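User: I'll paste a sequence; please echo it back and then give the predicted structure.

Assistant: Echoing your sequence first, then the prediction.
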Amino acid sequence: MRRHDRNRGKGAALRTGFQMATGDFVAIQDADLEYSPMELPNLLIPLVKGEADVVFGSRFLSCAPRRVLNFWHSMGNAFLTFVSNMFSDLNLTDMETCYKVFRRDVIQDIEIRENGFGVEPELVAWLARKRLRIYEMGISYYGRTYAEGKKIRFRDGLRALYCIFHYNAPTAPLPVQFIIYLLIGGFSAVFNLLVFLALLSGTMSPTISSAAAYGLAAALNYTLCVFFLFRHKARWSSVLELILYVVVVGLVGIFDVWTTGSLLFLGIAPWLSKSIASMLGLALNFIGRRYCVFPEQGAGPWRPQLDPHRKLESIGEFAKSGPVDSLLEIKIGDPIGSDPAKNCDIRSTAIQSLYSVQAESFFQGQVPADFHPPRGNRQADYGETSSDSP
């Protein structure tokens, strides 16, 4: 059992747990029991059969019991899932689900950076980038109210939205990247225009005003791109990246100054001249940043399914290679109960005889066509918990 000296958040707990994992598969189990551990065998089936690298348990695909709670909370969940799918090019129904079950080699190959609830969209981003075989299966959900101890807040939703941008945008589909850059570039262009007009109203000439405004706007643009869109040092070192950025800025800057001066010479109003030059420079800046300054290798094709003839014919065949206890690891912050026989006591390093009777028959033979694990999830069934962190 590994405990942090203080509560560092869900992401930090998962990072520690994943590093300690030694089994073939690793599952995430929140200690508040909104999700039933008895449903984990269902999620294991595609992994054990070699069909999946990751399985998500979706609260919105299941015919199993699902507690009805806050409307706006569910709308926020749907919105975050939609935005995540748009960036990652997945079609998940429940991005924020706790139940994510991985092959151990897959999850240990991911370096988790988020310490809080932002770990959920971060994990989805990394999994999508690696083009792994991701499956979803329906699960039951026994949600808690805030009065019962639920800890997710509006600020966590904002953090999740930022994480979707930050971890997905560098490899997002090109149209999505361009839309983001339109927002960044549009904001920078407005800043460019305001600075230009402010300098022009003083003693500076149009040429100097245009160049100074462009330089300041370029610095702002770079900061926003690294923060929201592109990955710093995507391919080049910091020095080479800076040199390339200055070259791109310089070339587009020359174009901006020339275009602005030419339009002014033709008698077009200063604000309109600068606006036209900024719009043209917007497209050139995106091309230069995307393909020269921050070139990101594409995610590539999705990992193919195994040849059907190579798939394991039964879960029992896989189980013969080792003990049941080595098949699954569950990472939580606190043990769910004290009596493994009665309370399904799950430790942070290895599962302790989970489903004592069900597991024996489940892993030693063919999975029955009508197999359905118990779906009870009341805290009284497993022991009271006081933590909302994993």
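The chain has two domains: 10-169+305-382, 173-293. The longest strand covers residues 54-58.
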